[in-house]
Amino acid sequence: MEQCPGMEPGSLKHGYSYNKNLKPENTMPDSLPVNISQQMTLLSAIHSPVDLKKLSLLELQKLADECRKEVIELVSLNGGHFASSLGVVELTVALHHVYSTPHDKIIWDVGHQAYVHKLLTGRKERMQTNRQFGGLAGFPKRTESPHDAFGTGHATTSISAAAGIAVASELAGGNEKVIAVIGDGSMTGGMAFEAMNHLGDLKSDVLVILNDNQMAISPSTGGLRHHFVNITLNKTYNRARQLLWKSISLFNNDLGDKAKNAVRKLEEGVKAALTPGAFFEALGLRYFGPIDGHNMEQLVKALKEMQELPHPKLLHVITTKGKGFKPAEENQCKWHAHNGGFDKITGKLLKTADSTLPPKYQEVFGEALVELALKDSRITAITAAMPSGTSLDLFQNAVPNRFFDVGIAEPHAVTFAAGLACQGFLPVFAVYSTFLQRAYDQLIHDVALQNLHVVFAIDRAGLVGEDGPTHHGAFDLSWLHAVPGLVIMAPANEQELRDMLYTALYELKGPVAIRYPRGNGTGITLHKKFTALPIGKAQIVKEGSHLALLSMGTMTGKALEVASILEKEGINATVVNMRFLKPLDTDVIEELASKTTHFVVIEENSLIGGLGSAVIDHLNTQGLNRPVLKIALPDTFVTHGNMNELYREIGFDTPSMTEKIRKFYKEGQR
Question: Which pTM value belongs to this model?
Answer without folding.
Answer: 0.84
